[in-house]
Amino acid sequence: MADQVQGLDAAAFRSALARFPAGVTIVTTRSAAGTLHGFTASSFAALSLDPPLVLVCLDQGADCFPAFIAAEQFVVNIATPAHAKLAMRFATKGEDKFAHGSFESDEGGHPILPDAAAVVRCELEQAVPGGDHVILIGRVHDVRVGSGKPVMWYRGDFLHLGQSVT
Question: CB–CB of 70/127 below 8 Å?
């Protein structure tokens, strides 16, 4: 990444964004050929209650980018502290992301984390370009709420709910 982006100090921008705690999600899909794909995202939010829509942002340079653009469905797994290593693996290019996860398959063959804080299953409604990312808008067709607490990403590390910030 360049040190300056159109007059903006890129390092300062990243540092400012890192001071906003964000939830951690592992987003998954299954291609038409049956191949599993996924990525870690902290840019996830509710977009609409009626109709039920969520959004998640995906880097256009991600290995799984073409698979998600072509996907009809995707799953947002809201990570817990137990998923920290898994989330790091899904954030790393070239990793065999599904090699050591405890994923199960839903009826469509999409990977879900059975012990996630929540699982949000979506149909891809729209993909909207947004700079070096794309905003995937999903129409929610099913949710499952787990018993675990979500984990946050803050200043380059995982932050557990209730944990003091130094």
Answer: no
Nearest to 139, CA basis, from 17, 30, 47: 47
Closest CA to 44 of 30, 27, 62, 60: 27
What is the torsional sign of CA 14, 150, 101, 144? negative
Q: 105 to each of 5, 91, 114, 121, how far by Cα in Å?
A: 42, 21, 9, 12
pTM here is 0.89
* Cis upstream peptide for 51 (omega within 30°): yes
Whether 48 shows a pLDDT value over 90: the answer reads yes
**Tokens standing for 6?**
């159109």
**Which residue do the tokens 């987003």 mark?**
27
The pLDDT tens digits for 106-149 are 988 999 999 999 999 999 999 999 999 999 999 999 999 998 89
